[in-house]
Amino acid sequence: MAFLSDALERVKPSATIAMSSRARELAGEGRDIISLSAGEPDFDTPAHIREAAKAAIDAGHTRYTAVDGIPELKRAICDKFARENGLSYTPAEVTVGTGGKQVLYNALMATLNPGDEVVIPAPYWVSYPDMVLLAGGTPVPVECPMEQDYKLSPQQLEAAITPRTKWLILNSPSNPSGACYTVDELKALGEVLLRHDHVWIMTDDIYEHLTFDGLPFATIAAVEPGLKDRTLTVNGVSKAYAMTGWRIGYGAGPAALIKAMGTLQSQSTSNPCSIAQYAALAALTGPQDYIEESRAVFQRRRDLVVSGLNQCAGITCPTPQGAFYVYPSIAGLIGKTSAKGTSITDDEAFASALLDETGVAVVFGAAFGLGPAFRISYATSDAQLTDAVARIRAFCGGCA
Fold this sequence. Notes:
It contains 13 helices and 12 strands. By secondary structure, the chain is an alpha/beta fold. It has 2 domains: about 5-45 and about 290-395, Aspartate Aminotransferase, domain 1 (Alpha-Beta Complex), CATH 3.90.1150.10; about 65-285, 3-Layer(aba) Sandwich (Aspartate Aminotransferase, domain 2), CATH 3.40.640.10. The longest helix has 21 residues, at about 290-310. The strands form 3 sheets. A 7-stranded mixed beta sheet has the order 2-8-7-6-5-3-4, sandwiched between helices. Strands 9-12-11 form a 3-stranded antiparallel beta sheet. A two-stranded parallel sheet has the order 1-10. It has helices at about 15-30, 45-60, 70-85, 100-110, 125-135, 155-160, 185-195, 220-225, 255-265, 275-285, 290-310, 345-360, 380-395; strands at about 35, 95, 115-120, 140-145, 165-170, 200-205, 230-235, 250, 325, 360, 365, 375. It catalyses: L-aspartate + 2-oxoglutarate = oxaloacetate + L-glutamate. Belongs to the class-I pyridoxal-phosphate-dependent aminotransferase family.
């Protein structure tokens, strides 16, 4: 009898976490490392949110709460959806989890049976397929190349749907590409989904507040109200308010689904951290100045990185519309050899050689389901980004 679960054989460790860990190890050995692998704002959590957490401790809010969120936070989430997205939900249609990842995982675990399929546009966040596999489902990746702005077309969606399709996962703005679906693009996808009423939609809107160049954010349940009753809209405070370590995510959808997810959470983690919930309440109901300030910084950094990477031999870097990532192609480097003798056979070899030879940590495109490419998180200082781009340019220039 094997000791470890067969389920573990279906999944692999997160490539983004693995690269971040490797970068930390090398830095610990004294190497000059610039890590551009983690998807985490480099700003402090806004002061009023930190103060709310301290006040929650002083007020004694340190005990168990309702399994899927305190009533005050659920009401604030309902208000947020109404105010910012034009979506009407009741507290019974809202769940709060330990980060957006738990909300996504709970939904998949609560709904998937063996053989159920989940359509996932690629490039995708590394965890989507593995969460589907852990839940016993079958991920169906659909490659969406750079030439179509890394976005799923209605024709591709129609072709991917089968009688076994249970979910479509949409992530906009996207991790890793920064691609954003417009209202018209979501309407076109919605027309396909309206014809297939057995397909549910899981929309991961965690980067909602990071869209650039005046592009308005759109989410499919608001664009096509006919899909609202089979859509789970997932969001959280981690990216919008620099609260990654606080681990608060939330989702809204049909009450029966939310209840099932709550049952699952009651037997796994139970409630999210009580103190973090009160901090999230302050984030959603307090001053929102931080959002615009951080957006301006990230747009400036995006422009810096895109301009610099497009000056690197063999790299083509499109300009993303949101999030804090770029996803450049390295098609022009495949088959070449680095200055220190590494053969660039694929994007994993590229990322490994780049780290070893220059100290710049990025995540290779195969981890996101579409290559040859790599992901850079530009959620770090201008000085580090400038240095990193210079190192990448020198590395590429040395490949022959």
